[in-house]
């Protein structure tokens, strides 16, 4: 039966990057190696350098033995969260214009000569048409 493990983001693992609190990610698995820093054959600095990223390449390049890989299981605390980090979407709502009526009146006051001209020309045409009959 599969066991459930805690999921952590890479950003969360990266925050644990001091000698008092050190997490290392290797191949998508997260290890709290804080208690192992003094015992690590390569020194604590090697582990502190790889916090905040997946250190699989560095781990494999170092040529760790089978017993070293088995020892890692003692420090296993969880896995990287496989879901992509999608930023939260911001919702913008166009505010309803409460001054619509006042803006309409201002526009009408500004452009009143246009409809007045149209009405005047229409009256003149109507009068001229009526005289012809």
From TrEMBL:
Task: Please give the InterPro entries that the UniProt record associates with this protein.
Answer: Cyt_B5-like_heme/steroid-bd, Cyt_B5-like_heme/steroid_sf, Cyt_B5_heme-BS, Cytochrome_b5
**Gene Ontology MF term list:** heme binding; metal ion binding
Q: Does the keyword field hold Heme? A: yes
Task: List the GO cellular component terms.
Answer: chloroplast outer membrane; stromule
Domain Cytochrome b5 heme-binding: start-end pairs: 5-81
Where does the record say this protein resides?
A: Membrane
SMART domains listed in its UniProt record: Cyt-b5 (SM01117)
Primary location group: membrane
The alphabetical list of record keywords is: Heme, Iron, Membrane, Metal-binding, Transmembrane, Transmembrane helix
Membrane-traversing stretches: 111-130
Its family remark reads:
Belongs to the cytochrome b5 family.
Q: Which protein, by its recorded name, is this?
A: Cytochrome b5 heme-binding domain-containing protein
The lineage, from the top, is: Eukaryota, Viridiplantae, Streptophyta, Embryophyta, Tracheophyta
């Amino acid at each position: 039966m599969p066991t459930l493990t805690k999921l952590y983001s890479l950003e969360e693992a990266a925050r644990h990057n001091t000698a008092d609190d050190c997490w290392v990610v290797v191949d998508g698995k997260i290890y709290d190696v804080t208690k192992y820093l003094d015992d690590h054959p390569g020194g604590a600095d090697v582990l502190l350098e790889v916090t905040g990223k997946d250190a699989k390449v560095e781990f494999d390049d170092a040529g760790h033995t089978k017993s070293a890989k088995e020892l890692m299981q003692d420090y296993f605390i969880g896995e990287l969260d496989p879901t992509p980090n999608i930023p939260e979407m911001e919702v913008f709502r166009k505010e309803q214009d409460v001054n619509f009526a006042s803006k309409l009146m201002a526009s009408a006051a500004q452009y009143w000569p246009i409809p007045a001209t149209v009405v005047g020309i229409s009256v003149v045409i109507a009068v001229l048409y009526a005289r012809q009959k």
